[in-house]
């Protein structure tokens, strides 16, 4: 049931990627539970993710555009699309004034935050990565608050950030701070997650690195590795040749469980992966995706690395020998691995959604 018009309205704006839409959904769920009305302003791509939002959320597909896709004519039309979106968003705000406007990044954020600026509505942005996205960078100095999912986040001079953390899935919350079993002379689980982009290098390097480990370590390993469909057969064959027990698949639906049972995680450092590893609390070897915009995956990894919870290997320095050395060092030193797990947990923010909610309530009170 839609909340009555007397309830405060939260307008959420988010672009069409899971990285933007997931924390937006978490905030929407929490605010509806507190009695707020919630509208989601997104684009056609984002609307595909909107099915996961509560039914009470009103979805508005607003005019926006991106300069990164399409031909010359499409790019020339973008400013007019954005201007039309700003006009439409401003008109809607004057008719149904939001108590707070929150942008999560992506081009659909432009009309909503521009209209909030023009109509003087309380507003903030949430940045998931350790480097501001292009749109969030534009608005960082024009909002009342900047919530940071990754800490530290590189911010423009004069802009203060609030470290909220990145919301994680309910299945991760359920395993937050799960007890860690240090490496030893018994079966050990290794989880390898490469994200949706750039996982091929992990398929190339990880099996070879594991094959190079001492037999005393290798015989105890059980590996779960995500790999692209076209890489599955050769990765499976590599593990079979090395005599290593491995489960290889393009996707694991139970990653939170696997992380909670792992002695070591090898992963890209996307914001969501880093948040999951931190909230559960596991030692990790992080290999940032080299092609990530503004190298934001390296920035995402910085908190865990600086805390002594993770080892970072730049992609251009990744080879089987280097990876094997780091894995052997962690798996061969139980006390050090335990310390890494505790340090990772110290970086986790399982209450990230609650922190975002508190900022929204604070903005409403000030507004």
Search tags:
367 residues, alpha/beta, seven-stranded parallel sheet, six-stranded parallel sheet, 15 helices, elongated
Structure write-up:
It is a single chain. The chain has helices at 18-33, 44-47, 72-95, 109-118, 134-139, 170-173, 200-211, 215-218, 232-242, 255-261, 271-280, 296-306, 320-331, 334-347, 352-366, and strands at residues 9-13, 37-42, 58-61, 100-103, 123-127, 145-148, 161-163, 188-193, 221-226, 245-249, 264-267, 284-286, 310-312. Helix content is 44%, strand content 16%. Helix 1 (18-33) packs across helix 15 (352-366), helix 7 (200-211) crosses helix 13 and helix 11 (271-280) packs across helix 14 (334-347). The chain has 15 helices and 13 strands. The mean pLDDT is 91. The strands form two sheets. A seven-stranded parallel sheet has the order 3-2-1-4-5-6-7, with helices on both faces. A six-stranded parallel sheet has the order 10-9-8-11-12-13, with helices on both faces. Helix 5 links the parallel strand 5 (123-127) and strand 6. It is elongated, with a radius of gyration of 22 Å. By secondary structure, the chain is of the alpha/beta class.
């Amino acid at each position: 049931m839609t909340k009555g018009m007397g309830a405060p309205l939260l307008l959420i704006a988010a672009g069409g990627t899971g990285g933007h839409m997931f924390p937006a959904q978490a905030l929407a769920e929490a605010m509806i539970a507190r009695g707020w009305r919630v509208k989601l302003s997104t684009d056609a791509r984002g609307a595909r993710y909107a099915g996961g939002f509560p039914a009470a959320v009103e979805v508005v597909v607003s005019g926006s555009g991106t300069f990164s896709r399409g031909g010359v004519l499409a790019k020339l039309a973008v400013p007019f699309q954005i201007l039309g979106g700003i006009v439409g968003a401003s008109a809607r705000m004057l008719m149904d004034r939001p108590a707070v406007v929150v942008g999560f990044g992506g081009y659909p954020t432009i009309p909503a935050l521009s209209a909030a600026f023009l109509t003087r509505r309380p507003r903030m942005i949430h940045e998931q990565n350790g480097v501001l996205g292009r749109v969030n960078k534009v608005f960082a100095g024009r909002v009342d608050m900047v919530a940071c999912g990754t800490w530290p986040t590189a911010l423009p001079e004069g802009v203060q950030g609030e470290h909220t953390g990145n919301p994680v899935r309910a299945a991760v919350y359920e395993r937050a701070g799960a007890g860690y079993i240090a490496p030893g002379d018994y079966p050990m689980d290794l989880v390898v997650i490469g994200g949706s982009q750039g996982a091929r290098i992990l398929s190339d390097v990880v099996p070879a690195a594991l094959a190079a480990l001492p037999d005393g370590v290798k015989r105890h390993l059980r590996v779960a590795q995500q790999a692209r469909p076209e890489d599955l057969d050769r990765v499976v064959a590599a593990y079979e040749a090395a005599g290593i027990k491995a489960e290889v698949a393009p996707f694991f639906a139970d990653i939170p469980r696997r992380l909670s049972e792992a002695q070591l995680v090898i992963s890209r450092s996307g914001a969501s992966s880093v948040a999951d590893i931190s909230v559960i609390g596991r030692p990790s070897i992080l290999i940032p995706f080299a092609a990530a915009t503004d190298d934001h995956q390296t920035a995402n990894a910085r908190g865990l690395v600086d805390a002594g919870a993770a080892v970072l290997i730049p992609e251009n320095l990744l080879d089987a020998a280097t990876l094997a050395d780091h894995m052997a060092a962690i798996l061969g030193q139980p006390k050090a691995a335990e310390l890494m797990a505790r340090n990772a947990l110290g970086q986790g923010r399982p209450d990230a959604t609650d922190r975002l909610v508190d900022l929204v309530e604070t903005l409403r009170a000030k507004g």
